[in-house]
């Protein structure tokens, strides 16, 4: 599918910036250095820096899925969804996203702060670095986005209008297929190492699991609770170490944003924490690192709950009582466990895998992947009984002991 608009290149970026009035003065285009660094699945990403050290980042959506190519057409209008997600976060948690400079709807380009010196969190986790405090920032981000865009904070008519405006069918369809459907059937988008075949076969033959995945898919498709990021994971978080030794974080890439279930954002993070933990176990990382990883999901959940309870005092509608909040939070925690399992399984079997697992040597790869699949399957099936993040962590510990003692399934 050919684009009917200009596809930017590093060579054309200076002239492009000069042509957009609201970008004037951010950088000196006469001394600009530009690099295309998009290593994700969807877009071109240009990081720009001038001789004085000023920077800007431009992100352009292509009319197809970048990870596949022109054989998979995809609307470039998704840039509007990302702009919507950035604008909403800028209103509620501006300190947790890059500074947002606006969107060019004609050429499908977003402009934002160049996070110079920041790095993708997934890569730092893969390398064994500890960034204390980042997990709690993600809980704060999810809570503020959820509260500020929902009926808890807004008039119901405004929420309905926003829900209609934020419809994002093509990106939602990607999630519906890649996360909830394709991993459980034979499909060209799936792949996994041969050693995992018995594990995958066991997962696909589990009728109860298939039914519960269907329930999670139904909730994803129908549960329009608030505007959600919808692709929140350790690869969409930038981190930096502060002078006091703690970590700072910024959330990026909300192009999947739509009105959906709040637990999906939390679950997406939990599923990626699971992959990071499985990697650390397979590699035999230090106890300090593994202990820190084991607390990330609880840290994110606690920050989410604390922030929701703080924001609750500002709700304008007395319908939403404190008892309602207690019940709602119980359900969101269960949802997050189930969605976390779905997101984790997709990353092992489906399209667009994670480097946490893919960069491991063969033996460690299979071990870590089996840990993820078994833990995630239990999360999905038993989310109501588990009920809490703490209980889901216990599942991981049991699975690790089982796999390390007995190995992964074989065809024998």
Quick recap of the structure?
This protein is of the alpha+beta class. It is 51% helix and 13% strand. It has helices at residues 13-19, 78-92, 121-126, 134-148, 156-165, 169-180, 197-204, 207-222, 262-283, 287-294, 296-312, 322-349, 355-358, 362-381, 383-386, 389-406; strands spanning 33-36, 43-49, 55-61, 64-65, 69-73, 100-104, 109-112, 119-120, 226-228, 237-241, 247-251, 258-260.
Low-pLDDT residue intervals, each spanning 5 or more residues: none
Structural class: alpha+beta
Order of helices and strands: HEEEEEHEEEHHHHHHEEEEHHHHHHHH
Shape category: globular
Helical content (DSSP H or I, runs of 4+)? 40-55%
Radius of gyration, in angstroms, nearest whole number:
21 Å
Number of helices: 16
Task: Explain what you see.
This protein is of the alpha+beta class and 412 residues long. It has 2 domains: 13-112, Phosphorylase Kinase, domain 1 (2-Layer Sandwich); 119-406, Alpha-Beta Complex (Aminoglycoside 3'-phosphotransferase, Chain: A, domain 2). It contains 16 helices and 12 strands. It has helices at 13-19, 78-92, 121-126, 134-148, 156-165, 169-180, 197-204, 207-222, 262-283, 287-294, 296-312, 322-349, 355-358, 362-381, 383-386, 389-406, and strands at 33-36, 43-49, 55-61, 64-65, 69-73, 100-104, 109-112, 119-120, 226-228, 237-241, 247-251, 258-260. α14 packs across α16 (389-406). The protein is globular and about 65 Å long. The model has no long low-confidence stretch (mean pLDDT 95).
């Amino acid at each position: 599918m050919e684009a009917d608009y200009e596809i930017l290149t590093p060579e054309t970026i200076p002239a492009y910036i000069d042509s957009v009035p609201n970008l004037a003065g951010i950088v000196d285009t006469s001394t600009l250095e530009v690099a295309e660094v998009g290593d994700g699945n969807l877009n071109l990403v240009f990081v720009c820096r001038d001789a004085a050290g000023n920077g800007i980042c431009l992100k352009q959506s292509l009319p197809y899925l970048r990870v596949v190519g022109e054989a998979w057409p995809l609307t470039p209008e998704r840039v509007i969804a990302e702009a919507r997600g950035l604008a909403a976060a800028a209103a509620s948690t501006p300190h947790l996203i890059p500074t947002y400079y606006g969107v060019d709807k004609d050429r499908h380009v977003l402009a934002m702060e160049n996070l110079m010196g920041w790095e993708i969190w997934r890569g730092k986790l893969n390398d064994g670095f500890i960034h204390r405090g980042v997990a709690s920032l993600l809980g704060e981000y999810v809570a503020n986005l959820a509260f500020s865009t929902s009926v808890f904070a807004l008039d119901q008519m405004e929420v309905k209008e926003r829900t209609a405006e934020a419809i994002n069918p093509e990106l939602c369809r990607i999630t519906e297929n890649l996360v909830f459907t394709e991993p459980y059937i034979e499909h060209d988008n799936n792949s996994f190492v041969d050693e995992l075949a018995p594990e995958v076969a066991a997962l696909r033959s589990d009728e109860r699991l298939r039914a519960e995945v269907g329930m999670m898919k139904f909730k994803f498709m129908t549960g329009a609770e608030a505007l959600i990021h919808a692709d929140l994971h350790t690869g969409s978080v930038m981190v930096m170490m502060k002078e006091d030794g703690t970590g700072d974080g910024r959330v990026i890439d909300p192009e999947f944003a739509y009105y959906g279930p709040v637990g999906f954002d939390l679950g997406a993070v939990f599923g990626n924490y699971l992959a990071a933990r499985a990697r650390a176990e397979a590699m035999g990382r230090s106890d300090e690192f593994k202990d820190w990883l084991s607390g990330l999901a609880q840290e994110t959940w606690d920050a989410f709950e604390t922030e929701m309870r703080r924001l609750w005092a500002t709700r304008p509608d007395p319908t939403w009582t404190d008892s309602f909040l207690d019940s709602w939070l119980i359900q969101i925690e269960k949802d997050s466990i189930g969605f976390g399992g779905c997101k984790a399984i997709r990353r092992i079997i489906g399209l667009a895998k994670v480097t946490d697992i893919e960069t491991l040597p063969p033996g460690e790869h299979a071990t870590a992947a089996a840990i993820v699949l078994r833990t995630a399957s239990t999360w999905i099936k038993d989310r109501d009984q588990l009920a809490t993040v703490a209980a889901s962590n216990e599942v991981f510990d049991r699975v690790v002991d089982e796999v390390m003692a007995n190995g992964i399934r074989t065809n024998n």
